[in-house]
Amino acid sequence: MEKAGISMIHVDIMDGHFVPNFTMGTPITESIRRITNVKLDHHLMIEDPDTYAPVFIKAGADSVSVHYEVCRNLDRTLHMIQDHGAKAGVVINPATRAMLLDEVLDIIDFVLVMSVNPGYGGQKFIPNSLNKVRELVRRRDERGLDFAIEIDGGVGPENIAEVARAGVDWVVAGSSVFRSPDPAQAVRDMEQAAREALSLKV
Ligand code: ZN
To answer: What are the tens digits of pLDDT across the range 143-168?
Structure first.
């Protein structure tokens, strides 16, 4: 993946509570950290990010995103992540409105728009997520802010052009890369398709 030119590795952490599935804990983060200098982006699909965000940062996470749906004191959580030396992001599920983030847009480093419901790989892209991306781009311009917009779920060669044109800065791809016969080529192809879509943008 590093040779294919990816800019970061997105690590999905699931706790079996917030989502009905388990994935990895900090030993995996530590292991990945030892073999690459690529930035490690951690998506915490867990109910208690206040306890575990610092643990993942210590293990090697460069950026950490927490779900809007579980944070009772979101402003405090975001500052806490930044105080631990990582970039802080907020994730919104498909049923969560983008504008609920309006009060924290000036704090966050990035917004992660879920384009599937979290919990499993290989799901179908939910088209309304691009309307949220456009709304966030508009709001960022209006307020002169500079957070990045990330999208996660169901992105592949068939919709990467549309995703790029909507204004997404970071694209997460799982199945469309790792279920392809040549993952490195899949990364290059999607990158090229995104670049071409942007150069065609008027
Ligand atoms: Zn994710």
So the answer is: 999 999 999 999 999 999 999 999 99
Residue 12 covered by a domain: yes
Say which residue the tokens 């509570």 belong to.
Answer: 17
Q: Ligand 1: distance of its center to the CA of 31 in Å?
A: 19
* AA letter at 186: A
Query: Catalytic site residue 146?
Result: no
**78 CA to centre of ligand 1 in angstroms:** 18
Q: Which domain holds residue 52?
A: 8-199
12 is catalytic: yes
Give dist(CA 118, CA 167) in Å, integer: 22
- Strand (E) positions, 71-199? 87-92, 110-114, 148-152, 170-172
Catalytic residue among 75, 152, 182, 189: 152
Q: Does a structural domain hold residue 1? A: no
Question: Residue 112 is part of a domain; what is its CATH number?
Answer: 3.20.20.70
The predicted-structure confidence for 177-194, as pLDDT tens digits, reads as follows 999 999 999 999 999 999
Under 8 Å between Cβ of 90 and 68: yes
